[in-house]
Write a structure and sequence with these properties.
This protein is of the alpha+beta class and 79 residues long. The chain has one domain: SH3 type barrels (Roll). It is 18% helix and 30% strand.
């Protein structure tokens, strides 16, 4: 995994493997977690609104400019 030096990361789910708390092709916020990253996991805020660790292979991290990330973070939950 290429570490991004930003606290506002996002990733698209590409495989949910039957997990109801993830929707394929949806964009999710990724929280920094160096320990999880060393084990190839991402800390993702999922459909429950809580953050959980998921295998990194289920996602593609996307690079967003700061303005776009700010707008996404300001959007109401579930929007």
């Amino acid at each position: 995994m290429t570490k991004l030096k930003t606290k506002n990361r996002f990733a698209v789910c590409i495989a949910n493997d039957g997990c109801d708390d993830l929707k394929v092709w949806k964009l999710y916020r990724v929280l920094p977690d160096d320990k999880a990253a060393k084990e190839d996991f991402l800390c993702v805020v999922d459909e429950s609104g809580e953050d959980y660790l998921y295998p990194e292979a289920r996602f593609v991290v996307v690079n967003l400019d700061a303005k776009t990330a700010k707008k996404l973070l300001a959007a109401p939950a579930g929007a």
